[in-house]
Structure formats: structure tokens, C-alpha cells
Amino acid sequence: MAKVTMPQLGESVAEGTIGRWLKQPGDTVAKYEPLVEVITDKVNAEVPSPFAGVLREILAEEGATVPNDAEIAVIETEDEALAGGTGTPAPVALEKGTDTSDEGTVAVEPANLDAANGQPGQGPGGSDEHPERAAATAAAAPPATAGAAPAATAPAPVAVGPGADGQGDPNARMTPAVRRLLREHGLEAGQISGTGGGGRITREDVLAYVEAVRTGTTPASATNGTATVPAAPGGQAPAAQPSQTPSTPPAAKPSKAPAGTPVAFPPGADEVLLPMTQMRKGIAAQMTRALAAPHAYVQMEVDVTRLVRFRESHKGAYQAKEGISLSFVPFVVKASAEALKRNPTFNATWSDDGLVAKRHVNIGVAVAVDDGLIVPVIRDADTLSIHGLNLAITDVAGRARANKLRLDDFGGGTFTVDNTGYLGTNLVMPILNVPEVGIVTMEAITKRAVVVTTEDGDHIAIRPVMNMVLGIDHRANDGAGGAALLRDIKAWLESVGPETAIY
């Protein structure tokens, strides 16, 4: 038997929460087939099986928060099955960067890249908060039964409250991760009807209840199965139920609204507390760390006349052939990758011992999701064509919005490109994605009057122009180096022409 351990899902991540087991004991598992969905403050990731065999035992139940390298499952490998199952247990850690499926893989060679799979979903990608998806999961998955065989489910938590089964204390019927989720939504255990073994409250129970309150449907009571409405702090009804008659809230204590919902003020409430999701907590922590680095900025205007003309002349045929649109982002990523090879001190990360230069050019692409921002990584971006980059970016952005990112989508980034311009911005001062030492923005392309010098002299012309802002870690590089990097990015983009290859 081989034991599967919790992988490290990010450079600064120490633990993960078991969101959903994709296989059950007795199921056959192929190598690299998704085995379990793990949730962190950065991402929801489908963790692949590191080998083929039969899942024999689940050691960490859904909703449990598990530290890195802790054992979470036991798999009988094919070799052990042929030998009669006499193998010796050997912990096998899931390696970060392992390919997780044959579909949508971002490979080094463009010919091996598949188009994006699935449509962007609703809800915060990579967040612990996903009511719609959780409600659907809870409805589709059969509830665990108390009489199930021990190998079919992980052992239930030991009851600590009154009564042999812990029913006297609702908090005894859940994992620490579920208790934390209740706190985030301002709920009490007694309000939730548990569907786990022995009435245990699961993560899906909590999220299904939150979704029911948000949509105004009837949530189940923990005591009698009738409709109940959770009381917010201060005795108020929640924001999703304004029809309830609330008591007057204390002036110093705000109402608490379910996270991820539009802001709605209950009658009599002057303010509403919006609890942080796991993603927002992760963003807050990362931004706090990032601002400890001394930032400096360089800005240039890029005349993208030739780039716009090139894209306009190719986008129709490209979309007809490939089935996806050709955006400006892969051009900027390509320009950045080429410029980084000439300015290697920006293809690096910062450490306490100094600058760590990287051989591989792994460019992160910022993707906005409903509840925040995540930065999946395009690996070896300098080896990809425009088409290869476009496929990779489309694939990873679609999976990010659909909560389908994989382990190898994170970690190891050396530089970041942030497309703020699609929102109409003209000048953004980006925050570094530490420990990286550089980040560049591509702003909105706008038509401006510019001076064009020809053999006949200077002329005023209307040209499409894009601002670009480069943020640098001043510990690693100075303004002169930043200007040189941005100048090389600008030169590549302005040189795009008929001879530029898409493939």
C-alpha cells in the first residue's frame, strides 16, 4: 500500500482543506487522474493521483484542514495488486508542478497545447467561498450514513459534548474547518442540519445553508427540518432576508452579511459587515507582504499602430481556425519574455540573501475573478509562439474563473503581466507579486494626437497608444534598469509587422 500525502499548493501555503473527494474507496484511479479537490486561501485545485491503482482508504474527511505532507489516502498500486497486496506502505508526496490531466495542459511546444476546456463559472475562483457550486455538490452527492463501512468514509470527529454521540453539543459534530466557516458567515451550529455521519455538519451543509439564505429559499433547520432564518449579530435578520422584522441593532455593532453577496442593508441597519472569504484573506496577507518591498515605477507610451493593424488583419481568420479570439495579451507576454532574456536581473526573485536569477522565464498573468485576483503562471513563456501563448492564457484564465486550476498553475513565477486596460485604465501603479521583482501593466489602447517625424518634418497624427507601467523592487534593480527593460518591451511591440509569426 502507498500513502498519498497533502501536497504544498503554493510557496507560502502550509496547509490545505479537503473540499471534495473525486474518488471513493474501491474506485480505480489512473495515474495523474484527479483524486481530490483541495482548498487553500489561494486556489481550489484538483490534486492528481501520483500513481495508478485502487483507492483503499480515505484518511482525511471532507472539510478537514490538513498540514503539508500529512497522509490523506491509501492506494493499492497495480504492482501490489498483482503481488497479492503485500507491499509495504510508502508515503508518496504529490509533487508541485505535476501534470493533472491530459486536457488543457500548458506544454512547452505550442503544438501540444489544447484549447480552453469549459466555460467560466460564477463565484470566486480559488476561494473557500463558492455557494452556488457547493449547493450543487451537496444536492448531487448522497449523504453519508452512520452505518457505512469504515473504509468508505474517514472517521468522524470524536464527540466531546454531552451524550454518547455528541448530539448535545452541535459544535462537536464538525471539523475545525467547518467551525471556521460558520464563524466567517456569522452562523451557529444549531442553525444547520448536518447530513454527515451521525448528523455531522459538513462544509457543504454550511454553504448550502448560506446559499439558501442568499437566494431567499427555505433552509433546513437543525432541529426539526422547518424553515429558519439565521440571526445576525445584534439580533438582526441577515441581509438576504429583509422581509423579517428585526430588532433595533446596537449602534456600535454592524450587521453581518453573507460573504460574496451584494451589499444590502436590513431595515434599521446603517452598516453591514462583509466577512472576508479565504481568497480575500490570502490577498490581504500577500499585499501586506508585498508592500514591505520598496516599490519604484517607470512609465512609457507605446505606439501600437502596427500591433493593432496586425491583429485586425489576422483575428477573423484566426478565430475561424482556432475557435478562440486573438487578444493583445499574448503579444505583451511575448514582448516581456524576450525583454527579460536581455535584462535577466528582472527574471528573478528576491531573498534575504540577495537576488535569485532564474533560467526559466515563467510569466504570471493576473486574472480577475468575482472575489479577487489570482496569478496563474505560464511556464517557459519565451519558448511559446503567439498562438501558444494565446492558447495557454485562454486556457488558464477560463479554468481560473471556473475554479479548475491545477497544481502546476501556481508557484515558480518570475515576472507578472497585468492587463488592467480592459477596464479602461490609463495609469495603474501595480503592486509586486513578491518575491518577484517586476510587474508590468498594459493599459487601455486609446487614440491620441501624437507627433510623427518623417522625411518631410514633424506632423500631427492620430495613433492608437497604450501606456505601460513597470513596477520594480528597488532592492533588486534601479530605475535605469527598469527603464531599459520597459524600453525593450516597447521596442518589440512597436516592431510588430507583416513578418511577425503567429505560429
Protein traits:
503 residues, alpha+beta, OB fold (Dihydrolipoamide Acetyltransferase, E2P), Chloramphenicol Acetyltransferase, 6-stranded mixed sheet, 5-stranded mixed sheet, 21 strands, 23% strand, globular
The total strand number stands at: 21
The description of the largest β-sheet is:
6 strands, mixed
Neighbour order of strands in the largest sheet: 12-21-20-19-15-18
Please name the fourth-level CATH homologous superfamily of the domain at 291-494.
Answer: Chloramphenicol acetyltransferase-like domain
Strand fraction? 15-25%
Shape: globular
Question: Which regions have little confidence, pLDDT < 50, spanning 5+ residues?
Answer: 85-170, 222-253
- What's the architecture of the domain at 291-494, going by CATH? 2-Layer Sandwich
Order of helices and strands: EEEEEEEEHEHHHEEHEHHEEEEEEHEEEH
Write structural notes for this entry:
By secondary structure, this protein is an alpha+beta fold. Among the domains are: about 1-100, OB fold (Dihydrolipoamide Acetyltransferase, E2P); about 290-495, 2-Layer Sandwich (Chloramphenicol Acetyltransferase). About 25% of the residues lie in helices and about 25% in strands. The protein is built from nine helices and 21 strands. The strands form six sheets. A six-stranded mixed sheet has the order 12-21-20-19-15-18. A five-stranded mixed sheet has the order 3-6-8-1-9. It has a four-stranded antiparallel sheet with strand order 5-4-2-7, with no helix packed on it. A hairpin with a 2-residue loop joins strand 13 and strand 14. The radius of gyration is 26 Å and the shape is globular.
